[in-house]
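Chain A, query sequence.
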Amino acid sequence: MASRKYMEHALSEWMNASGPDQDVVISSRIRIARNLSTHPFPMLSTNSQSKEVLTQVSQMMDSEELNTISEFQFIPLEQLSELEKRVLVEKHLISPNLANEARDGAFILSNNESVSIMINEEDHLRIQCLCPGFQIREAWDLANQIDDVFEAQLDYAFDEHRGYLTSCPTNVGTGIRASVMMHLPALVITQQMNRILSAINQVGLAVRGLYGEGSEATGNVFQISNQITLGQSEQEIIDNLYSVARQIIEHERAARQKLVNESRLRIEDRVKRSYGILSYASIMDSKEAAQRLSDVRLGIDLGILENVSPHVLNELSVMTQPGYLQYSSGVKLSADDRDILRAELIRNKLSTTLSEE
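Chain A, predicted structure.
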C-alpha cells in the first residue's frame, strides 16, 4: 500500500534537514483553507457531493505544474485503518478532524511529507506546508505556489469583499493559518511564560499545544499562530507572526543565558538527571517522556550534552506517541504495555546514538 511508507519511519524526511533558529523553533507551518464554489461546504454536502469533490481534486494529480513542485501520492482515508490515521495525526500529516470526522476524505502527500493537501476536512481543501526551523516565509512561498496551481484549475468560493469563503467564520478572508512550533523551556522554568502568553494574545495571535486547537502544551512545546484572517493581507499576517516569533526567540535565548549564568549547576543537574532517567527507565508515560525529552533538548542547545542529535529527539517525539507505539508493535497494547515499550524504545534509541559517536 502506498501509504505504508509514510508510517514506517517516525521522522519525516523534511525534519532531517536543518533550519534557522532550530534551537528554539522546531518547525514552521502554513495552512490554507479553500472551498469549491460549485459544491456545498463539507458540513452540508451529501455523500455524492463529497465524492464529486474528491474526484475533481484527485484529478489534480495529473497536473504538470503540481508535479514540478514535488512527487505526490493520493491517499483515500477509506484505505487506512483507525490506527494508521492516528499515526498520521501524530506525525502532523493530517488533522484530527480529517481523521475522525471527514466523510469521503482523502489527502495528497508529497514524498518528503512536507506538503499535505487534505480533502473534505472542515473545508474542501486544506493545503499544509511544513519547514524545519524558523522558515515561515519559505513555507508561505511554497503554499502560495501550490494554491496558485489549484486555483488555476478549480473554481474557488470567493467574495470580492470578504475574500475566500470558509466553513468556519474565523478563517474567512485569506484563509491562512501561519504557525511556528516553539520549544520554550527556559521561559517556563524562569516563570515568564504567562506574561509572554498574555502579550501574544494581545497582538492577535493564539497559543496552542502540540496538536493545535484544544491540545495541551506538553514538553514545553507551544504552537504560536495567527487568529485574524479577515482584514489583513497574507503578507501582513506572515510579517506579524514573524516579528512576534522573533521576539519570543530572543526572550527564550535570554532566559537560557540567565539560567546558565545564575543556576548552571542546577540546570546541568536537571538535564543530566532527565538524560539518565531516559537512558535507564523501565517504564515511562507519555507526559513524563515529553518533559524529559524537553530537558535533554535544552541540554543539547546549551552545550551540556554533546552526544545526542536534535533529530533523534524529533524522532522520539513521534515514536513515543500512543498510536505509533501501537502501530510499531503490531499487537494490541494496554496503557501499561505502552509505557514499558516507550521506555524501551527511548533506551535503545539513545544507546544506539551513543554507539554511533
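The longest strand covers residues 25-34. The two ends are 36 Å apart (CA to CA).
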